[in-house]
Design brief:
There is one protein chain. 40% of the residues lie in helices and 21% in strands. The protein has 147 residues and is α/β, with parallel strands linked by helices. The chain has one domain: Rossmann fold (3-Layer(aba) Sandwich). Strands 1, 2, 3, 4, 5 and 6 form a 6-stranded parallel beta sheet that branches. Helix 4 links the parallel strand 4 and strand 5. Helix 1 crosses helix 5. It is globular. The structure holds flavin mononucleotide. One of its GO terms (molecular function) is electron transfer activity. It comes from Formimonas warabiya.
Length: 147
């Protein structure tokens, strides 16, 4: 079965809530869905997936979380990802979303197919935010079905 993988890091649970909602959306379409914290994910999970969602909040100074997500993304950058459908998402607080713009640039340089703009939500997602996450999951999973 074709499947989408959703891999996230979350310190205080906001990006995790987003990830769960992306997964809910993706499951509403008829594809397999794997939802994994980055600590349990491998590069292989990404390479074997038909579509990929990665979530990480703004950390450091507009950076990815440095212990787990940054090394994971660095490892991904060593792989052949051209054409693979991707979406990025994450929570932030006081910044202007620069971490997400930088992250998108990195992924674009690898030739991934960014299905949508990175979805950023301030702090804990509200109902509207969760609905946006579900919608993102639907769009990603719909693409898997059409491949
Ligand atoms: C160590 C640390 C660094 C952070 N750096 C930023 C930042 O550079 N820009 C920003 O907008 N928010 C920053 N934040 C706020 C987090 O992105 C925000 O609290 C987010 O909701 C956390 O998501 P999580 O619950 O998934 O961990 C930082 C938070 C922490 C704890």
């Amino acid at each position: 079965m074709k499947y989408a993988v959703i891999i996230y890091w979350s310190g205080s649970g906001n990006t995790q809530q987003m990830a769960v909602a992306v997964a809910e959306g993706a499951r509403s379409v008829d594809v397999g869905v794997k939802l994994l914290p980055v600590s349990k994910a491998t590069v292989q999970d990404v390479l074997t997936a038909d579509a990929v969602a990665l979530g990480c909040p703004a950390m450091g100074d507009e950076a990815l979380e440095e212990e787990e997500m940054e090394p994971f993304v660095t490892d991904l950058e060593k792989e052949q990802l051209a054409g693979k459908p991707f979406v990025l998402f994450g929570s932030y607080d006081w910044g202007d979303g620069q971490w997400m713009l930088d992250w998108q640039e990195r992924m674009k340089r690898k030739g991934v197919r960014l299905v949508d703009e990175g979805l950023i939500l301030q702090n804990t997602p509200d109902e509207d935010g969760l609905a946006e996450c579900r919608e993102l999951g639907v769009r990603l999973a719909s693409l898997v079905n059409r491949q």
